[in-house]
Write a structure and sequence with these properties.
The chain has 2 domains: 2-177 and 336-354, Glycogen Phosphorylase B (Rossmann fold); 180-333, 3-Layer(aba) Sandwich (Rossmann fold). It has a 7-stranded parallel sheet, sandwiched between helices. It has a 6-stranded parallel sheet with strand order 12-11-10-13-14-15, sandwiched between helices. Strands 4-6 form a two-stranded parallel sheet. The chain starts with a strand and ends with a helix. Helix 6 packs across helix 11 and helix 9 crosses helix 12 (324-331). The radius of gyration is 21 Å and the shape is globular. It has helices at residues 13-24, 70-75, 113-116, 125-146, 157-167, 204-214, 227-233, 246-255, 269-276, 289-292, 307-317, 324-331, 336-354; strands at 2-5, 30-32, 49-51, 79-80, 84-89, 97-98, 103-108, 151-154, 171-173, 192-195, 218-221, 238-242, 258-261, 281-284, 299-302. Strand 1, helix 1 and strand 2 (30-32) form a beta-alpha-beta unit. The model has no long low-confidence stretch (mean pLDDT 93). The protein contains 13 helices and 15 strands. With 355 residues, the chain is α/β, with parallel strands linked by helices.
């Protein structure tokens, strides 16, 4: 058994999935292009991480400048000959080569976003034009790479549809693991909460503007390039906490009144964590929120990406009285135990098709 992941240099949801895979298969090495122990979850220091030659380059947060080199980085591993290879991929790891008798299954977070849906990620027109020649070449590589694995597994139904549209591959759906066990359903507190990287496409500005307009207390957890603009937009009821550890975030989730999830994510771990802590979510009705949340029960959904729509949703939140225990039971569908059971079942289905 081997696990392959794009890069290990940030503490994101995909990296949490890889940690869970490493727990399921503790003897499996993790192959990756870059590994920066101090920039990702410290638990990876207990994992057998094997890196490509790209790891020797002195880059960390600017890893995206190496885009043309990632195909070669995964080719440098040669042909992996383990009986089972699971690639954890949002663009690169699915291109790893394997032995003809290896079962290669891709756990796909999305077809490479900057290649196939780049507007939220490469915002400037001039940048997109400059990348166009490289984009065409890498799209060809990406689609060729997608033909080689034996099976695809998508993290959500909306991702399954994109895998079909971009790669022409069918996929099972296995939702990512959420550490629901670290939460207890608690009564609602007094403050709203946002937990997010502060990037423009996350639309944290909607939450800040709505809370400021209504004079509602809001805690914002996270860092990113949009911080200064958000601080300029915020009124006195908004508090920015920067990056916090898991224990501090857990405490805020246990004591908040509700979580605001204003952006579009393929899955979205934070809304499930909120429900696990007994808290409803005010979420934009798109992406994974439509699969993990139920409007009027576990969440209040708003359908226009505007502060006006969010303000109206916050007004409707006052009438939502779902008990914390009911919210927590809804979140339990996405536990680590459910992930392991469903992932093993999907892999066995893939094995049966190719034996």
């Amino acid at each position: 058994m081997a696990i392959v992941h794009d890069y290990l240099n940030q503490p994101g949801g995909a990296e949490r999935c890889v940690l869970e895979m490493a727990r399921i298969w503790p003897e499996a090495p993790v192959y990756t292009s870059l590994y920066r122990p101090d920039s990702t979850f410290p638990e990876f220091k207990q994992v057998d991480v094997r890196t490509s030659p790209l790891n020797r380059l002195p880059v960390d947060k600017r890893f995206r400048v190496l885009l043309p080199l990632y195909p070669a980085a995964f080719r440098a591993f040669g042909r992996l000959d383990q009986a089972l290879v699971v690639s954890s991929s949002s663009g690169w790891a699915h291109g790893v080569r394997t032995h003809p008798e290896t079962l290669h299954v891709v756990y796909c977070y999305a077809p490479a976003r900057w290649l196939w849906s780049s507007s939220p990620y490469v915002a400037r027109d001039a940048t997109r034009r400059a990348l166009a020649p490289m984009t065409r070449s890498l799209r060809a590589w990406d689609q060729a790479a997608a033909r080689r694995p034996d099976a695809y597994i998508a993290i959500a139904e909306n991702v399954r549809k994109r895998i079909r549209a971009v790669y022409g591959r069918d996929a099972d759906v296995v939702y990512p693991p959420v550490d629901t066990a670290r939460f207890q359903p608690r009564p609602r507190g007094d403050r709203l909460l946002v937990v997010s990287r502060l990037l423009s496409y996350k639309r944290v500005d909607l939450a800040v503007e709505a809370a400021t307009r209504r004079g509602l207390p809001l805690d914002v957890v996270g860092t990113g390039p949009a911080l200064n603009k958000l601080q300029a937009l915020a009124g006195p009821t908004v508090t920015f906490h920067g990056r916090l550890d898991d224990a501090s975030i857990t405490e805020l989730l246990h004591t908040c009144s509700a979580v605001i999830f204003p952006g579009t994510e393929d899955f979205g771990i934070v809304p499930v964590e909120a429900n696990a802590a007994g808290k409803p979510v005010v979420a934009f009705a798109a992406g994974g929120a439509l699969e993990t949340l139920e409007d009027g029960v576990t969440a209040v959904l708003f359908r226009e990406p505007t502060a006006d729509a969010l303000v109206e949703a916050l007004d409707r939140l006052q009438a939502l009285e779902t008990p914390p225990e009911v919210l927590a039971r809804s979140a339990a569908r996405f536990s680590a135990e459910a992930f392991e059971t469903n992932l093993r079942a999907a892999i066995e289905r893939a094995r049966d098709r190719f034996e």
